[in-house]
Give the backbone structure.
Amino acid sequence: MKKLTKKQKEYKAKRAALALLSVDIKVALKLGNQPFNTVNEGLLFIYCEQTNCKSFRTFYQWKQDGYKVKKGSKGFAIWGSPKNLGDKKDNEEGKDKEKDEFKYYPLCYLFNESQVEKIN
């Protein structure tokens, strides 16, 4: 079994924490009457409540708008766009190749307005 690096262990721990938080949000969504409609919107709702900030964007979105993320700022994790992973395998007839799909949701990090400064 391959030994994980420190960085891989940290990433795995962040995914596990986000997955656990997402379960609570999914339950809240099933109960209804929430100010959010998706898991990521629920995560942003929680982050807004925790930080009293209203604007969360990716590093590149802030950069595009003329801001830089302050050194040492830690991003707020949400789920990224799903990626289809898997191997192409021959079907039973051997004619076409089918993709054995597995959806993987990577982490995406957002920064709020208190973590950025305008570039001069």
Observations:
- The mean pLDDT is 89.
